[in-house]
Amino acid sequence: MKDKIRRIVLSAAQAAYDQGDLATDQFAPFQITEPKASAHGDLATNFAMVSAGVQKMAPKKIAEAVLRHIQDPDHIIARSEIAGPGFINFFITPAAWHPSLAEIFQKDHHYGESNLGGGQRIQVEFVSANPTGPLHVGHGRGAVVGDAVAAILSFCGYDVHREYYINDSGRQIHTLGRSVLYRCMQISGKPVDFPEECYQGDYVYDLAKEILKEKGGRLTTVAEDEAVAYCAEYAAGKILTVIRQDLDVLGISFDNWFSEKHLYDSGKVDAVIQYFQQKNLIYENDGALWFKTSAFGDEKDRVVVRGNGQTTYFASDIAYHKDKLDRGFEKIIDVWGADHHGYIPRIRASIQAAGKDENQFVVILTQLVNLLRAGEPVAMGKRSGQFVTLREVIDEVGRDAARFIFLTRHYDSPLDFDLEIAKQQTNDNPVYYVQYVHARISSIIKKAKAERAIEEINADDKSISLIREPEEIQIIKHLARYPETVIMSAEFFEPHRIAFYLMELAAAFHAYYNKHRVLTDDPALTAGRLYLIVAVRKVIRNGLALLGVSAPESM
RNA sequence: GCGCCUGUAGCUCAGCUGGAUAGAGCAACGGACUUCUAAUCCGUAGGCCGGGGGUUCGAAUCCCUCCAGGCGCGCCA
User: Fold this and answer.
1) Any idea which nucleotide's C1' is nearest the CA of A59?
2) Whose CB has fewer CB within 10 Å in chain A, the N or C terminal residue?
C-alpha cells in the first residue's frame, strides 16, 4: 500500500511539473509513513516539506500542486488533505486493503519473504563459547539472537551459514585439564591445592569422577603434562557435547563447527603470521611479534606471538577471520557478548590489513543479562562455584519463553531475565499472549469444521467485501506491514522488531475477538471473517517461526 | 584517565533511522465470562524522553558538553 501511494505521489508530482505547477522534477527523497493519530489518515507523506528547498516554494503550495494532479484510477484514496506544517494525509478506502489478504493466502509460508540479500553468502558466527564449562544465560542471549538473525536473513534472500568457533586450543583448555586432573587427585585421596585460577564449578568434579571411572588410577602414574593434556581433551569433548545438547534444546543447530585447534594443525596460523610479516605488518619488539593494528585505527599494536614463543588468541583470530573471508563469504557477522567490545578494533584492523573491506565484518554485541528471581539477583559466573546454567533456565521456564524474552529487547540494551516472570503465563510474559492468538484462531477453525462443516477457508468477493469493521481494517493494515517489518529487521540485524510486531498484531486480534464474533448467523460474513483470521494465523505462525518459537494449536 | 553501550510512566521495555498530541505491558483503580479458550478485553490515572547548549520548518531521535549506571582498556581469553 505504501508503494502504491508512493507511486501516486510521484506521478502526481511529475504531472505537476509537466504542467508548470512545480519548479523542478528533481524530487527530494520523501517518506510514506503511517501517522500515529488516526485523525491524520492511514498514510501520509512529507513530500511537500522535504521538497521546500529544491522547489523553492512553501510546503503548502507544493502540497496543493501535488494534490491537484493526483490520479487514482483504482480508487484506493477515499480522501486526502493537507495538514500541519505540510503533510499530505491520505485516507484509504477500506476495500483497498482487502487484496492484502489474498496475497497472504497465496504466499502462505512465503509471505514476507524478499530477495533483499540477492543470494549473497553471509556467515553468522555465534555462541562460540569456550568448552571449559556449561553455557550460562549470557550465552543463551547470543545464541538466540544469532539464530534469529540467521533465520531472518535467510528469509530475506541471503545464503546464510551458521558457525560455531570452538576454542579448543590454548591456555584455557590447559587450565581446564589441570582443573580436572587436580580434582581427580583429590578424589583419589592425594592432598593437592586447588589453584584459584582453575575452574571451581561442580561439573569439574563430575568430569573427574567420570575420567577416574574410565581410566582408573593410570592417570596418576603418567607425567603430569601428559595427564593434563589427556584430561583437557577428554573434558573439552564432554563439555562440547553438553553444549550441543543445550543448544539443541533451544532449537539451535549449526552448519559448521570450526575448530581453533584445526587452524593450528593445518598451519594456517603460521601461514597468516608469515603473510603479514612479508607485508611488513608484523614486526618484532622485546622478543615478541606485534601486529600493526594501530595503522588501521586500533589504539595500539597487539602481540601475536609472545616472548615465550606462544601465540596469542588474537593470532588465531586473525587467521580465523581471514579464513572466513577466504571461504568466500561476502559478509561475516560475529555475535559477541558486550564484554568483548574492546576486541572489535583489532579484528577489524586485521581484516583491513588483509586487504578486505571492513564493512564485510559486522559485530552484534549483545549486552549483559542479569539473571533475577522475583527481582533478586541470582549469582552467575563460571569461576564461582555456584551458578545457574542456561540449561537450568530453559528447563525451568521453557524454550519458547526463554527465546521470546531474549528477543523482546534490542540486543543493545541490558536485559533483566527474571525467572519468576518468565514462568508466568500472563501478559507480563508476552510469548503466551502471542501464542494464544494462534491457539484461539485454531480453536475457531476447529469449531467451524465440526459444527458447520466448513472444510476449506476461502472467501469470494462478496464475503471479503463484508470485512469492513474498523477493527478488521486495523488488522489488515497491520498484516500488510509484515513484509517491511521483516526487511527492516534484516537490514539492522534486529529480531526484536518482529517480536514487537507480533505483540501488536496479537493485541489487534484480541481486541477484535472480544468485540466481534467470527462464527455468525450470516454465512457470507462468517466466510469473510474466517478468511481474515486465518490470514492472521498465517502471519503469526510465520513470525514466530523466524524467532524459533512454536505456534500451538491449543493452549 | 580513555573507549563502547545504556538513561523514555512507579517497574520492564518499544518508538517505523528527523515528523504532527511520546506508546505498550506489568503494578494501581473501575468495569466485561450463559455466547468462537478471561493465558483475553474495555476504561481511568500515570511523562521536563537524565541535565544544559546547538543544528532546522520540526529533535526522544543528529552534534557538542556535563551527570549517572553497566562493560572493557595485558606478551589473558
Assistant:
1) B57
2) C
